[in-house]
Amino acid sequence: MKPGSWPRRLRTAGSAILAMAALTCAFFYAASERIVRRTFPAPTHQLVVPTDAASIAEGARLARIRGCNEGCHGQQGITGRVLWEEPWIGRMVAPNLTEVVRRYSNAELERAIRHGVRRDGRGLFEMPSDMFAHLDDHDLGAIIAFLRSEPRSDGPLASTSFGLLWRGGVIARAPGAAAITAGIDQDIPHPAREDHRDALANGRYLAMSTCTECHAQDLTGEPGYSPALAIVAAYSPEDFTRLMRTGTALGGREVGEPMLTITRKRTPHFTDAELDDLYRFLRGLSHTD
Q: Nearest 5°: phi and psi at 179?
């Protein structure tokens, strides 16, 4: 072997490996970006948004129960929040809603909230629109009224970013990696107010528009994450109220996360009548086929 040939071969091999790595990264980016930038058709729905003080106050309560006010979009309001940031995976940011509502029309907000479709037609990630799709016009209108009533405030400067592992998950269609929009029936009719006036129907409405984010659309839970809500049959009405008001499960046990945060931030804003209706519906799940 000629002197100096081995280092040259190493440099050549190293250059080839780097070039292959660069091509692989470019493929991952291009393939995942095409999926991330996919646009979705969604119906246009004209929503009546009230402006009176009582509706705004009710909207603030409903927004707390659904987790956007003092929840996902800000621990002290709706000014946005970095939900998580992990090396190689990326960063998820819930945007500042005091800014979003000033750029979106009511119809565009309805489409984003209930259909998971952004103003530009792209899908939303991590947004529980499959749960919000069950909201009726009255409640959603009140929530938007509250969002519009909040003064513009500064939020996090960071934005959502997709790391290499997340992009790999997007390409592989891994659960949780894709836009929530893809799993929503965009033609499902929204519930009418009169459809859930009796106690049992109202309990179902509350469960579908509040619990499905964690417990799946059929309320049977997510393996390793959340239980089937038929478990409520083991609770008395008093036990269920204590659970939802304090996070205390049967036997005096404190529930784990994320339910603990939910029972401290969201469910205490249910009225007693709403908890009664919700309990009645969930308790009946154990008797269904």
A: -65, 140
- Full DSSP string of 36-96: HT-B------------SHHHHHHHHHHHHHTTTTTBTTBTTSSS-EEEEEETTTEEEEE--
To 10 degrees, the CA torsion angle through 72, 75, 80, 86? -70
pTM of the model: 0.88
| pLDDT at position 126 over 90 | no
DSSP class of 191: P
The tally of CA atoms less than 13 A away on the side-chain side of residue 211 is 25
Q: 50 and 137 in contact (C-beta within 8 Å)?
A: no
Q: Are strands 161-162 and 81-86 parallel, antiparallel or unpaired?
A: unpaired
CA 259 to chain CA centroid, nearest Å: 15
| Cross-sheet strand order for the sheet of 161-162 | 81-86, 90-94, 161-162
- Of the pLDDT bands very low, low, confident and very high (cuts 50, 70, 90), residue 289 is very low
Ranking 186-200, 208-222, 231-245, 263-277 by mean pLDDT, the lowest is 186-200
Kindly state the tokens that stand for 26.
């470019």
Q: Is the pLDDT of residue 75 over 90?
A: no
